[in-house]
Write a structure and sequence with these properties.
Strand content: under 5%
Protein name: SalK
Distance between the termini: 44 Å
Number of domains: 1
Oligomer: single chain
Pfam families: HTH_67
Organism: Streptomyces scopuliridis RB72
InterPro entries: HTH_67 (IPR054058)
Radius of gyration: 19 Å
Shape: globular
Helix content: over 70%
């Protein structure tokens, strides 16, 4: 097996993941769930992402998602299942993905040999993912692979995203970062969601955010200006390195040439989606 260049797996993941995560910022998700009987955009997010787990309760969803305030999760789960079953939620999710990708990329891209190749490569990578201690990955891995290439690629991107995410949570626990400390330190790195988006989407208050920053300062990870210290920068680097270690199997299985090609194809698809407005302009940033 050809060894991968340094950070090749991380770079590949970084361009594949947006194909999955664009769904959560789209009007298509709320619209399809409203048609299915769940007329609440926030509840639609929790139902869409948790549906592979079955009729899960709030505790399970909070544990699997990690960085959402439990009170917010409990406001919507398990009540969402009274309006839409997990099975119907999965159908609504896939319809939303189809609508979103047709709108962002257009029929020509969806029918292209490049997208079909990206789907084939990403699915091949997922063959090396393992279920133990990866609840969100494992739940999605039990779902059938859609036939349409754009939906198959989205499915594969979902598997790769949740596989890496499950591993990342293990790294966060090892580093002793609670959910909001993880978010605040990531934001301080310049690579995470802005505080505006964290507070709006994760259920935390401004006071709780400031308390998390205070705890990080107490550990010497954040300075008085809200920037990572040298120790904080090193911790975030160690977190990503550990996440890479836990996430290496699918990319090693794909091999250096496959990873390079998937990175090329995924980068073009993610770039086109971004240019079409897949994500809010102010999503990422320290302020």
């Amino acid at each position: 097996m050809t060894s991968l260049p340094e950070r090749a797996a991380r770079r590949c993941y970084a361009v594949v993941n947006p194909f999955h995560s664009a769904l959560y910022f789209s009007p298509d998700l709320g619209r399809e769930f409203a048609r299915a009987g769940l007329d609440d955009a926030r509840a639609a997010y929790f139902a869409a992402r948790a549906a592979p787990l079955g009729r899960a309760g709030a505790g399970t969803v909070t544990a699997a998602f990690y960085n959402f305030r439990h009170d917010l999760v409990a406001r919507h789960i398990p009540r969402a299942w009274e309006s839409v079953s997990p099975e119907d939620a999965l159908d609504a999710r896939l319809r939303a993905v189809d609508s979103l990708l047709r709108r962002l990329l257009g029929e020509e891209v969806l029918a292209s040999k490049e997208l079909a190749e990206a789907a084939e490569l990403a699915l091949r990578a997922t063959e090396a993912c393992a279920r133990p201690a990866r609840p969100l990955y494992a739940a999605n891995a039990d779902l059938p692979v859609p036939e349409a290439p754009h939906l198959a690629y989205w499915h594969a991107a979902t598997l790769l995203r949740e596989y890496r995410g499950d591993g990342h949570l293990a790294a966060l626990l090892r580093a002793g970062l609670d959910p909001l400390e993880a978010l605040a330190s990531h934001t301080a790195s310049g690579r995470g969601m802005s505080p505006k988006w964290v507070l709006a989407s994760r259920g935390w208050s401004q006071e709780e955010w400031e308390a998390a920053e205070k705890r990080l300062r107490g550990r010497g990870l954040l300075d008085d200006g809200g920037e990572l210290t040298a120790a904080g920068t090193e911790l975030r680097k160690a977190l990503e390195d550990e996440t890479d270690r836990l996430d290496r199997a699918p990319y090693e299985h794909l091999g250096a040439a496959g990873v390079a090609r998937l990175t090329e194809l995924g980068g073009a698809l993610a770039g086109a989606a971004q240019a079409a407005g897949a994500f809010p302009a102010d999503l990422i940033g320290k302020r």
